[in-house]
Amino acid sequence: MRPLPARAALIAVTCLVAGSAPAASQDYYADIRPILVENCVRCHSDDGIAWSMEDAESAYERSARIARAVSNQQMPPWLAEPGHQDYVGDLSLDEATLAVVRDWAAADFPKGDPRPDPAPPMMHHAAFAPDLSLDVLPDDGYLPDQSATDEYRCFVVDWSADESGYVTGFRAVPGNRNVAHHVVVHAVDPAMVDRFRELDAEEDGAGYRCFGGALPDRLGDRAVRAAYEERYPDGVRELDRSNFWLAHWAPGMDGHVFPEGTGIRVEPGTGLVVQMHYYSSTAPGEKDVDTRLDFMVAETVERPAFHLAQTRGDWLASKRSGTMVIPSGTKQTFEMADDLGNLVGYIAYLTQVPQDRIQALEIHSANLHMHSFGHSGEITLTHDTGRVETLLSVPRWDLGWQRDFTFTAPKLIDREALEGTRLGVRCTFENDTDDTVYGGYGSMEEMCFNFSYIAVQEAPATDPPTEGRK
């Protein structure tokens, strides 16, 4: 079995965003350093996720490493293939910026004369103002597994608001960015929170291992799953259906505000399962302490939203169903799609918008999710006219850099067009081990998911139902 990939080496340059035009001759202080300050120091700081770029001289010593990662387009960590959609916060590099870096490298990294750094950019979204903050970790913090390069650990946290509300913005503040790589927050139905707490209590130490999402890794073991379902018949399926992707954080994503006028409804008594991705190879012995979650919360929103999680349930039990099997030494592709017209009842349940008042859907994002055998994938929207639109293409998958890809303009689907409009996900896996890989919840099993943020346009209550509505 191959180990999970180390991330610390790849975090070297989460930056160098497009926008610089080539100069007649490039040097570090005049041309490269301003790009680093504008786009890199927010993560590569003394308190950041890897080596610091705050000191200009020490950053210059890594010039070859910077240029190599950028020229190979390994960095910045932007998985989306260009040419399909325009995305908010696109980190990808245009040819002009690549030329600046390549010309500098070809000239043997001229340094130039030192000069003061420009002012760094604002770290957080200008409109972000949290209404609720929640602590994630126990009082004494958490020490990541020192024997593993990567660890995915889930912690169950109470949503402390006393009344229903809508999450309209999110920020994670890791207590120790030397060991925290990313955060995913899943919301759990109030009726199932105690079941997740029970799972937490049954595993040694704070939290539980949870590579595949909100569920514990150990439920991927046949015997453990069988024992759990003796207590709770169909219990794993119930756990899986009772949580949804609420928000996430990755380096550089400080203070994310959801599309204006939208928000995700959260009820009192909801639980949050917070998946922390840790790595300790660059900071052995260091704990994560005082990690917190900040939320913007509104009493009402114009257009209630939700995260649609797309997969096939039988893929997650493939040792039994045989529906997602990747033999040793092979590359396999799996795909599925949902007809949006068939989801109207589910959408009404999630958003509490009556079915006959769902006027249109706004698809705001796409988010591909696989595990470490993922090779590539696509998320597509097939319109009721038959036109196929690629929402996201990821030709080179990297588990460590999964994120929402939010469109600069949402895809608007009128109610009359929902039936026959299909949102689909396709995943390709490559198994270079000696063992067969199955779909499932474990860290050495696979998943194929899309998560899309979708808002509902609601017709006024006085409008009569339109003919043909469901």
Description:
It is a single chain. By secondary structure, the protein is of the alpha+beta class. The chain has 3 domains: 8-106, no CATH class; 130-293, Sandwich (Jelly Rolls), CATH 2.60.120; 302-470, Jelly Rolls. Helices cover 17% and strands 30% of the residues. The chain is built from 10 helices and 21 strands. Strands 1, 3, 7, 8, 10, 11, 14, 15, 18 and 21 form a 10-stranded mixed beta sheet that branches. A hairpin with a 5-residue loop joins strand 16 and strand 17 (388-394). Helix 3 (63-71) packs across helix 4. It is globular, with a radius of gyration of 23 Å. The termini are far apart. Residues 1-24 have low confidence and may be disordered.
Which structural traits does this protein have?
470 residues; alpha+beta; Jelly Rolls; ten-stranded mixed beta sheet; five-stranded antiparallel beta sheet; 17% helix
Low-confidence stretches: 1-24
Overall CATH architecture of the largest domain = Sandwich
Count of DSSP H/I helices: 10
Tally of domains: 3
Structural class: alpha+beta
The top level CATH class name of the largest domain: Mainly Beta
Classify the helix fraction into a percent range.
10-25%
CA radius of gyration is 23 Å
CATH topology of the largest domain: Jelly Rolls
Strand tally is 21
Strand content: 25-35%
Main beta sheet: strand number and arrangement?
10 strands, mixed
What is the terminal-to-terminal distance?
49 Å
State mean pLDDT (0 to 100 scale): 87
The 3D shape can be described as globular
